[in-house]
Amino acid sequence: MDERELTDDARTLLGNPRKALVAMAIPMIIATIVQSANNMIDAIWVAGLGTAALAATGVAFPYFFIVMGIGNGIGVGASQALSRRLGAGDYEGTNRVASQALVMSLAAGTVVAVAMLLIVEPALIASGAGDYLEECMDYTVPIFIGIPIIVLSSILSGLLRSEGASRRSMYIQLIGAGLNIVLDPIFIYIFGWGVAGAAWATILAMSIGCLLGLYWYFVRKDTFVRIPLRGFRFDRAVDADILRVGIPASMEMIVMSLVMIVVNQIILLVDPVDGIAIYSTGWRVLDMLMIPAMALGFSVVPVCAAAYGTGRMDKFRDAYRYCIKLGVGIMTVVMVVALIVAPYMVSLFTYSDGTAHLADEMVMFVRIGALFLPTLIFGMASAGMFQSLGMGIRSLTATVIMNVLRVPICLFATTFGSLTALWVGMTVSEILGASIVAVWAVVVLRDVIARRGTASRDH
Question: How many helical (H) and strand (E) elements, i.e. helices and strands, does the chain have?
Answer without folding.
Answer: 18, 0
